[in-house]
Structure formats: structure tokens, C-alpha cells
Amino acid sequence: MRTNTSRRHFLKTAVAAGAAIGFPTVIPASALGRGGAVAPSGRVSVGLIGCGGRSRVAKEYLNYEKSQLVGVCDPIRERREKWAAEAGDCVQFNDFRDLLARDDIDAVHVVTADHWHVPISLAAARAGKDMYTEKPLGISIEQDLAARAIVEKHKRIFQYGTQQRSMEHMRKGIELVLNGHIGALKEIHVWAPHGASGGSATPVLPVPDGYDFDLWLGPAPEAPFCEDRCLVQGARNGIFHIYDYALGFIAGWGAHPVDQLQWWADAAGMEIPVSYLGRGTIPTEELFDTLTHWDVECVYANGLKMRFLDDETARKEGGVPNLEKVGRFGNCTMFIGEQGWVAVSRNGWEVFPEPLKQKAEDAGPKQLPVSGQHQRNFIDAVLSRRQPVANLTSAVQSDLICQLSDISIRTGRAIQWDPKREAIVGDAEAGKRMRRPMRKPWRL
């Protein structure tokens, strides 16, 4: 195990030699002697990057015999200290670059604010680490495509944090659709929890001791430190609803039901929709400025229509069909066919006709990958070098649906997507929204 002193010496030597780096001082783990191999003990050594509320899912690494949590990282000292105390023998880091430079870490679990997901994943791939990255993927289409390119280049294992792929009833429901039990598809409805408005940039507060605010912001624009931006936890956490850091719940929550849609589409050989026309509500008066409500019609190349909504819009009259059966679901993916329908949600599933559930035990020859637990599936993939249940190629596709839906609403017009060129076509202004500027010195 290398010490911080040896790393500092290595960094100075590399910079003096004119080493080219995409991120400030990111050094590949292979250069430190790790070479991409898993731990000799056969256990995967994991580093946790981000110790906020959502990081609780990483506790599974403490309970699985094939993994061990050896490092935790967060620019907020109190959070990383709390996690390190719970994890036991665990090294703490303020800066993710220091964690990535360690040659005793095989993989990372990235559970930061959304605007950090792709930049840290890129750095992890360059450092030779496998990664489990929370949803949503990026805050721009450019970021999504960059993530896929760099992970493929470095041959890394990537698990997307869409845990619903590891829920048995979700898999069974989609297999019913794939094997034709509801007949030819007529339409699809997808909905997710609505976003939040409000928040205030005042009063401006002094940055607390042990809070590295500049690193917390990272590639996002400079901003004043305030409670609603930086200190609130839970569903009204500002990082979920401020456009500098996220698309909002259209992606942050939408990632889950849209991922189930994409799971079906991958197996059915379908590209993502090519046309998007949406309307929605974007707050303009206060700090939170991501979509609170949305209703987007998405059309596939073969003419199949998918409607993407927030849950409140879905529950209104004319929102989604079969509301008496599915209205309790805050997030859902509903497939409607000529002979029946299937609706899957993390809170359960509904089918029509009801006897279809019995057929789900053996739906037919078209089968989806089986995962009993999402974090364990990731560890097993790292050891076997086979991609896990929620791979990056699929993650990019599902995230693009959320991105393009948001762009349609923000431009107020239909968006046309070319899946071969992976570009918005016929609208130069909308095309500019495929990218986001990054605060120096950060770059993709």
C-alpha cells in the first residue's frame, strides 16, 4: 500500500515530465502497480465516493463475503467520519482523486450529487477502477456519450444504480411482454415522482469547518453557500432540484421506470424514441429550477408511442389508463398490448388478465439476466469480468430519453433524434443543449 507521501512524489514527477491529464492530478492505478487485477484474496476492495444519505446502499459491501469496503470519500468531513466509523478499518479521503490513486482499491461506488456522476466515473475508468455509479447518469448528453466511450476504452465493469433490475417481479413482468403474452404492443406509459419548487439562495452562510465547498461544487458554476443548496437532506435536497447540479426528478427519479422501459427495448432490439414533444412546469422565481411536472409524447421509429409523465399528471383524468389498478404506484412502466397489459413498479406489479401472473414463472424463451441483489451483482461482475445486470450501454440509452424529454420542454418544441448519429437533428439551438459548460479546471 502506497502512502500519501509517495503519491505526492509520484504526482510531482508526472507533472514535471509533462504528463497529459484530463482531470487535475488523476493518476491511473495501473501506473501505481495495480494493473487492473482484483485483490489477491479474491475479495473486491471497494472505495465509496459520496457519503450522503443515498450512500446507505453501499452497506451491502460490508455484508458480502466477496467484497470489502476499504475507503470512504466525501468533501464533507462529518459524513466521511461517520461512514468510516461504521465501516471499521477504512481510510478516509476528502478528495476523490486521492482515493482513485490508491493501488489497493479495485472498484468504486459513486453516490455523489448528479453533476459529479460522470466526471468521477471518467476519472475512475482512467485510473483502472470498475464502478457502480448511481442514477441518473449525466447532466448532459455529451457527458453520457463520454462516459460510454471512456469505460469501453479502458474495458471497465460498470453497474448503473437502477436497482429495480434486481427485483424479481420487474423482470418477470417485462418477460411477459417480451414473450408476447399481451399481444402486439399498442402504447407504453411511464411515470415518476414529480419534482419540487421553492428553495432560497439566502441567507448566504459561512462555509462550515470541514466542508470543502469548492470541491463540492466541482465543475458546477460558483454559487453562494446557503442552507437549501448545501445542507438539506431528503427529497427536498437542493442538489436534486437545481439545474446546475441535476435535471431534476425527470431524470433523478425517471431513471428508474425509464430504465425498465429500456430493459425491454434492449431485449426487443429497439432503439430509443426518435421524436419528443413535451410540456411541463419549470419554476423561475426561486432557487429550485428543474421541472416539477412534465408530459412528453415520445415516438419510436416504428410509430409506437410512449408517454412519459410525472405521477401527479399521470393520476389526473386522462393521465394514464387503468388508473384504478395502478394509481397507487408513484413510479411505473406500463405496457399495453392488444390482448392485455403489464405494469411494473418497485412497489409491486399489476397485469391484465390476472392469470398472466401464473405464466410469468416460465414466460418463454426470451429471458432477461437474473440478479438477486444489485450490489452483489456488481461485485460478482468485477470478479468474473462479465457486465452486470444494469450495464452502461443501456444506462446511456435510458438517460438520453430523460435528457431529450427535458430539452423538448425547455425549448418548447418537438425534438428529433438520430440514433445512428446520436445527435439532435434539424434544430441547431436544441443541439447546443446537448452540452454543458464546466467550471475550470474541470473538463471531460
Structural account:
The protein is of the alpha/beta class. The protein has 17 helices and 15 strands. The chain is globular and about 60 Å long. A nine-stranded mixed β-sheet has the order 13-12-11-7-10-9-8-14-15. A six-stranded parallel β-sheet has the order 3-2-1-4-5-6, sandwiched between helices. The chain has helices at residues 4-16, 60-63, 77-87, 96-100, 114-126, 141-153, 168-178, 213-217, 227-230, 249-252, 255-268, 311-315, 323-326, 356-359, 374-384, 392-411, 428-432, and strands at 44-49, 67-73, 91-93, 107-110, 130-133, 158-160, 185-192, 275-281, 293-299, 305-310, 332-337, 341-345, 348-352, 415-418, 423-425. Helix 5 runs parallel beside helix 6, helix 7 (168-178) crosses helix 11 and helix 11 crosses helix 16.
**How many distinct helices?**
17
State mean pLDDT (0 to 100 scale): 91
The first-to-last residue Cα distance is 29 Å
Q: Which geometry do the CA atoms define?
A: globular
**What is the alpha-carbon Rg in Å?**
22 Å
Low-confidence stretches: 1-39
Q: How much of the sequence is in beta strands?
A: 15-25%
Tell me about the biggest sheet? 9 strands, mixed
Total number of beta strands:
15
Class computed from helices, strands and strand pairing = alpha/beta
